């Protein structure tokens, strides 16, 4: 179904997959109408709980659709796919799809969906530099990047300027510190060459943990509760035909203990900030 928009130029159309007869809220994203279930948006997102409460009449029909700004209709459909795909764990989406889900779940505070996105990204093969940049941007648990840190410590050659800009100064300093420590360890143990690659894997892992301060607190850098665990709420079951009665809203709250500064006294982060007079 298509209808003329108010300006008479663009056309508003129903999404071919996510305009559901049993839905009880309508969203307008760009020029596409989505008719889905309000329950998902009120189950855990403080952002949507607040916005929907401020405009209780919005979304009750196509004419009063709830407008969602700053997102494309394709990306919004990608978010909905998680809820409406019973086989999402078997449907291997590309990393770009999960990055969309990570971005929107972070922006709108869908905490369980964010955990799912991180879990799925962990299962995908990604360029180490790109993965570190993404995890830094979204403040995801740094301990999950241990394989990527080790790779950058053992590969030939230094990081390029472009790579350094992507991962950030603190990561570059920590990688440099770990490489230097590994080379000194190789020399002290009289290995065949003064090469960081000559350090055994177990020793290198400890060196990297020391450089990134991952020993005492395995969730350092995870400020938005992004621990990996099996999500319990995403069954993907079709809920068409359910009662439209208001659902019980059980919204998980971020763990305040994760927002504290846990940088150890010898960490690169703390040393750098001390040098710059920040702390």
From TrEMBL:
Membrane-spanning intervals of the chain: none
Renumbered residue ranges of the record's region Disordered: 233-279
Polar residues compositional bias, start-end: 233-245
Listed InterPro entries: BTB/POZ_dom, SKP1/BTB/POZ_sf
Domain BTB: residue ranges: 23-92
UniProt protein name: BTB domain-containing protein
The species this protein was found in: Suillus subaureus
């Amino acid at each position: 179904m298509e209808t003329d928009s108010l300006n008479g130029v663009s056309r508003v159309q129903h999404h071919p997959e996510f305009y559901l007869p049993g839905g009880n809220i309508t969203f307008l994203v760009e020029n596409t109408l989505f008719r889905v279930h309000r329950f998902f948006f009120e189950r855990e997102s403080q952002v949507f709980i607040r916005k929907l409460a401020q405009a209780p009449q919005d979304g009750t029909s196509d004419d009063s659709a709830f407008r969602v700004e700053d997102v494309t209709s394709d990306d919004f459909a990608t978010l909905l796919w998680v809820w409406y795909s019973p086989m999402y764990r078997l449907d291997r989406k590309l990393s770009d799809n999960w990055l969309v889900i990570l971005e929107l779940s972070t922006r709108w505070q869908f905490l369980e969906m964010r955990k799912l996105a991180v879990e799925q990204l962990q299962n995908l093969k990604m360029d180490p530099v790109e993965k570190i940049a993404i995890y830094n941007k979204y403040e995801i648990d740094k301990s999950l990047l241990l394989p990527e840190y080790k790779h950058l410590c053992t590969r030939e050659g230094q990081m390029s300027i472009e790579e350094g800009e992507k991962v950030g100064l603190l990561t570059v300093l920590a990688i440099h510190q770990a490489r230097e420590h590994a080379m000194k360890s190789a020399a002290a143990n009289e290995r065949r060459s003064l090469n960081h690659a000559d350090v055994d894997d177990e020793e290198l892992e400890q060196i990297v943990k020391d450089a990134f301060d991952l020993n005492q607190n395995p969730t350092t850098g995870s400020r938005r509760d992004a621990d990996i665990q099996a999500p319990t709420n995403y069954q993907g079951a079709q809920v068409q035909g359910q009662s439209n009665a208001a659902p019980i809203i059980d919204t998980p709250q971020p763990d305040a203990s994760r927002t504290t500064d846990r940088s150890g006294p010898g960490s690169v982060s703390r040393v750098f900030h001390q040098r710059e007079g920040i702390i």
